[in-house]
Amino acid sequence: MNTHPAEREGAGIDSWIVVDLDRISRLPERLRRLWPPDLLPRRVDRDSRAASAEEEISGAGSGAAAAGSGTGAAPSGMGEGSGGAKRDLDVLTAWLRGFASELNRVRTRISVVVSSGVETVHLALCLGPGIAHAILALQGEGLEDFARHQLLRRIEPGRIGHVVEDLTELVDQDCVLTLSWASGRGATGLEFLRREGGTWYRPVIERAGDSVTVDDDVDAGESAVRKLLSAVLTRTLTAGAPS
Q: Is the dihedral of CA 159, 163, 164, 169 positive or negative?
């Protein structure tokens, strides 16, 4: 990768709040179980947990734990200086608990994964009444700074397509975008796009009896990602609605 993700024009990483995985793991069980399973930290190594505990006791919280080493936007009034760091950590924890508790109100969940094989952007969208809670994980080559963190933000549904389009720019190489969703009364779906040489293609899937075949891809045109997200959002937000 040529540039740090936070420096890429349009990537918009500075508009996210960066939270260390240890903090997510310490959420109360009633809140932790609301987290998207694919992004819930499975296990926190002892050294990391011990370092985090020592950090809170000393009150000298690191910038990465408080707000992603400057790559994320912290909640209003939160600073990163050594003075009052213990208070800052408490404010972030309170914000995280509030964010997690709101996941209980979602009615639609969408998962977007963009992967080139060496770079992966994994976005979970939890859509509630009029708002979406976005949880982002970045992994792989050039994204090492975010390996122990997740990025969080609230976002209006009308902005989701633009956000996902921006996030695809974090993956430099040819890649595949996989989008899965669950909404309404058990309604689910799966869509995907492939990017090669900067152009997005959409595979043509055909069903014949019990078999499924994938024909040659067709050019998905400009704004393919935004158009796909718009179509899926329209479908999911009306799934299960009374006819």
A: positive
CA distance 43 to 67: 22
Q: How far apart are CA 107 and CA 11, in angstroms?
A: 28
With contact defined as beta carbons under 8 Å apart, do 120 and 97 qualify? no
Strand ranges for the chain from DSSP E: 17-20, 108-115, 119-128, 131-140, 149-155, 175-183, 187-196, 199-208, 211-219
Provide the sign of the torsion angle of the four alpha carbons 128, 130, 135, 138, taken in this order: positive
pLDDT tens figures, 53-77: 444 433 333 333 333 333 334 333 3
SS3 label, residue 116? coil
Closest CA to 8 of 197, 118, 183, 142: 142
pLDDT at residue 46, rounded to an integer: 44
- Convert the pLDDT of each residue in 7-42 to its tens digit: 443 355 778 999 999 999 999 999 999 999 999 987
* Per-residue pLDDT reduced to its tens digit, 152-164: 999 998 899 999 9
Strands (DSSP E) along 37-118, which ranges? Answer: 108-115
* SS (HEC) of 12-30: CHHHCEEEEHHHHHCCCHH
The number of CA neighbours under 13 Å toward the Cβ of 5 is 31
β 187-196/199-208 pair status: antiparallel
Degrees, nearest 5: CA angle 30-33-36? 145
Kindly tell me the sign of the dihedral angle through the C-alpha atoms of 169, 172, 175, 180: negative
Tokens matching residue 60:
């000298």
Contact 99, 75 (CB under 8 A): no
